[in-house]
Amino acid sequence: MAEGQPRFLDRFSKGMKVSFVVLGYVLGIIGVLIDWAIGHKKKMMECSAEAIWYGLIGWGANVITRFILIATGVYAHFGLTDPVQGLFGPGVTAWNILWCICGACFIFLSMLWIYGLRTKMSDPERAYVMKGDDHFAPGTKTLRYDGGITVNALPETIWPYMQQAGQSKGGWYSFERLERLFTFDITNHYDWQKYPQWQNLHTGEFQWFHQAPWSIGEWVTDCSNGENGLYYWAAHSDTATDPTWKDRGPNQEGALRLWFKRFAWTWNWEVYQINETQSRFIYRCDCHFDPFLRTPIHKYFVVFILGTASLVMGRCCMETITKLSEGDRNFRKRYFE
Description:
This protein is of the alpha+beta class. It has two domains: 14-117, no CATH class; 123-334, START domain (Alpha-D-Glucose-1,6-Bisphosphate, Chain A, domain 4). The chain contains nine helices and six strands; from the N terminus they run ααααααβααβββββα. The model is unreliable at 333-337 (pLDDT under 50).
């Protein structure tokens, strides 16, 4: 990194992260709760979440370790028993295998969230009001996540890649083959070109997320492509105001509704210069759905199913555009390309 702000802004030291894992490994769910209490002291939702995910990695590793000890006969050799996995029967049973798989899945899910949470806004950026933040009326309950990354390039170099975002243009610079596996028509361009025909981001444009079979996306409500030195866009999808996938717009645009009475989100992006050679690339997403807290299962669905994918895609998009802007041609091997 060039002299200036670091690429990523850490919430916890490496030692603290290791401590979270150890607590989860040694104390199990109790350790995870202790991790949550420690993270909660920072009064930031992402800190609480990150602490929990590190603890769950430790818990999952403990589950796998105990399964290995049972499967290899170590417990039997020393005449030991496992008070938890012993409930599933002696030796390697189907329930023991399922419990081990559960631990591995928690490790994988935790790593996805830690990956996605790695990019973050600074405290001043979190307090900053972005274009599009006013879509929801004051007092509306929303889930919020955000991201920020330092780029060794100026906004005029970064923004052209963002202008051509969307699956009808240059893609979202994310995991295209993984998304194709789920039948989405994804075509991203990692050839370091800025396509003139796509340098026309404008208000009212529909940015496709998926083109098949669920043709959903969001509408651009405000943008600036360098006018007055500003580089941003504000966008939203809202079933209360926009066409839905059951009643599409003239070009088959549709807002994602699922089973909610109302499902809406804003996704706002901005690039601003911080010194002679660096810029900050930030985004913020607010999500509202009705019913909200009255039915916690809906909240957990949005957080873990939709939220996990959004966090991973958001970070991958930011990192890819960062590498494109910096001219790093070795990053491609990190992705599904």
